[in-house]
């Protein structure tokens, strides 16, 4: 398939710049694959739509304040750093103090090239970094140094790494401070992501309580979302694009909950594309779901044989993105009595989703990370 097959027009004013005051009041487009219908609801309506025995599977990764500002030692110029993935960490005794050090891969913005040996003073100066290596993809490897645990320092010095289509001025913008709370799910617990699993942003503890009262259970996976998930597809043919790997972990309790729901006839409702990637990645090498950890580099695009989820809650995604391609693939499956039945060579689901996106534009839904969502049944 061609990348251009997944394009659509979106007026810029529909790109949400801030979250709604109430998480669960986001609008929710319900796409019923069996009926081939569209219904306009709200996330707060989920207890009326899901059934007793259904299982929500969510990504509990925690976004770290991975966006840092500072100065470089060689030129004195400003630098912006986006930490991507932690590689190594440890402590050492230096001048009667315990120094905390970690190695990370990072992306940067600065005037001029970075080279090994350049030192960076970040935030208020409580965190420093040394450039260790540069990559061909524009990334760098840095060693962070602080007198307190690095994640604690990031909580004080860093900013939420919201996507570039959300306009922020971190030093002066009150919205940037709000991002620390709202660009995070209420159930986040495992730090490591540099982007939020945005479908999970719509849930509140009150909504979870209502769902539990209705017999809808929940289970967690962890996939630490990296910037590669949101990188545009620049190849003409979809098949030529390569995904960047992201770390995931699936526990025994989650596997047991999924198996129990299946045995009882309940639906597995994946919350977000990252949950789908973790589950399907874990299934690639075997015919059953098994607890464990790994690196997900799976590129889900039409046509794809889904083996883990019966329904999916997802936000609205960028044109020609890998996330939109996954949604188009999922929409091409028709639910059957014993799970999904593949009936799509790749075109039907794409046409269904692009038709739904045109309706979302017409109905003035809010798009992207802080926007509204879609439930595919």
Report on the architecture of this protein.
- By secondary structure, this protein is α+β, with helices and mostly antiparallel strands.
- The chain folds into 2 domains: 259 residues, QueA-like (3-Layer(aba) Sandwich); 92 residues, QueA-like (Thrombin, subunit H, Beta Barrel), CATH 2.40.10.240.
- Helix content is 21%, strand content 31%.
- The protein has 8 helices and 19 strands.
- The strands form 4 sheets. The chain has a 9-stranded mixed sheet with strand order 2-1-19-16-14-3-12-13-15, covered by helices on one side. A 6-stranded antiparallel beta barrel has the order 5-6-7-10-9-8. The chain has a two-stranded parallel sheet with strand order 4-11.
- Helix 7 packs across helix 8.
- About 2% of the residues have low confidence.
């Amino acid at each position: 398939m061609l990348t251009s097959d997944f394009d659509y027009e979106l007026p810029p004013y529909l790109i949400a710049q801030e979250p709604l005051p109430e998480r669960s009041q986001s609008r929710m487009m319900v796409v019923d694959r069996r009926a081939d219908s569209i219904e306009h609801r709200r996330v707060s309506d989920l207890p009326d739509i899901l059934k007793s025995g259904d299982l929500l599977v969510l990504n509990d990764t925690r976004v770290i304040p991975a966006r840092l500002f500072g100065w470089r030692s060689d030129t004195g110029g400003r630098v912006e750093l986006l930490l991507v993935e932690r590689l190594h960490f440890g402590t050492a005794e230096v001048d009667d103090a315990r120094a905390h050090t970690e190695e990370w891969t990072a992306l940067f913005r600065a005037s001029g090239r970075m080279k090994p040996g350049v030192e960076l003073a970040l935030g208020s100066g409580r965190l420093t970094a040394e450039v260790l290596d540069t990559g061909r993809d524009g990334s760098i490897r840095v060693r962070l140094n602080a007198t307190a645990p690095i994640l604690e320092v990031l909580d004080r010095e860093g900013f939420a790494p919201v996507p570039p289509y959300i306009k922020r001025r971190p030093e002066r913008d009150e919205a940037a401070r709000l991002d620390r709370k709202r660009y995070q799910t209420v159930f986040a617990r495992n730090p490591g992501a540099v982007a939020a699993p945005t479908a999970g942003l719509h849930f509140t503890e009150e909504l979870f309580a209502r769902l539990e009262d209705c017999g809808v259970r929940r289970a967690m996976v962890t996939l630490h979302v990296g910037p590669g998930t949101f990188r545009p597809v620049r190849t003409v043919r979809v098949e030529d694009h390569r995904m960047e790997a992201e770390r995931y972990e699936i526990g025994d309790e989650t596997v047991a909950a999924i198996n129990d729901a299946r045995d009882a006839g309940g639906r597995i409702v994946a919350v977000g594309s990252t949950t789908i990637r973790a589950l399907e990645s874990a299934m690639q090498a075997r015919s059953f779901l098994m607890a464990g950890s790994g690196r997900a580099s799976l590129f889900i695009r039409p046509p794809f044989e889904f083996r883990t989820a019966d329904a999916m809650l997802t936000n609205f995604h960028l044109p020609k993105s890998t996330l939109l391609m996954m949604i188009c693939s999922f929409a091409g499956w028709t639910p059957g009595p014993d799970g999904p039945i593949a009936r799509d060579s790749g075109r039907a689901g794409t046409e269904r989703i692009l038709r739904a996106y045109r309706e979302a534009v017409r109905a003035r839904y809010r798009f992207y990370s802080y926007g509204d969502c879609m439930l595919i049944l």
